[in-house]
Amino acid sequence: MATLHDTKYRQALERRIRMLGADSRRKWGQMSVEQMLWHLNAGLSTPVGTAKPLAGKPPLPRPLMKFLVLHLPWPKSAPTSPTFLATGQYDLETERARCLELIDELARQSLDAPAVDHPAFGKMTGRDVSRLQAKHLDHHLKQFGV
């Protein structure tokens, strides 16, 4: 499975992010393109240390949640934590630039970093985090047809 540490994969994601425009239309869900980028940035901000981790209890045991999100396809319009719900108005270029910065920052972190305890998924290695974020980015870029 691809990670943000795979240079070619990361560069492909970055190209897709740059393809997004104000006229990009979602194929499912309710977020605008700006809200989607804000949502991605909220998810990327936690592992780089600029946001607090999620709180609350996951709907399934943490090891099962981790397995599901890392290994199975994600359904369209899957529920998300209230922390990551984008409800405001955001600037496309600001959110795009922040997303690209966060991707770069996360890719500079070691895949061999000590595992951290994720509130929803349990122990997450650097590789797990990189895989999760790569999958999250891909999911939402597909949502907007790029």
Task: Give a brief outline of the structure.
The protein is mainly alpha-helical. It is 48% helix and 4% strand. The chain has one domain (7-143): Four Helix Bundle (Hemerythrin (Met), subunit A), CATH 1.20.120.
Give a verbal description of the structure:
This protein has 146 residues and is mostly helical. The chain has one domain: Four Helix Bundle (Hemerythrin (Met), subunit A) (Up-down Bundle), CATH 1.20.120. 48% of the residues lie in helices and 4% in strands. The protein has five helices and two strands, in the order ααααββα. The chain has helices at 7-19, 33-45, 62-71, 92-107, 126-143, and strands at 116-118, 122-124. Strand 1 (116-118) and strand 2 form a beta hairpin. The mean pLDDT is 93.
Strand arrangement, major sheet? 1-2
Cα shape = globular
CATH architecture tag:
Up-down Bundle
- Domain count: the total is 1
Q: What is the helix tally?
A: 5
Oligomer: single chain
Descriptors:
single chain; 146 residues; Four Helix Bundle (Hemerythrin (Met), subunit A); 5 helices; 4% strand
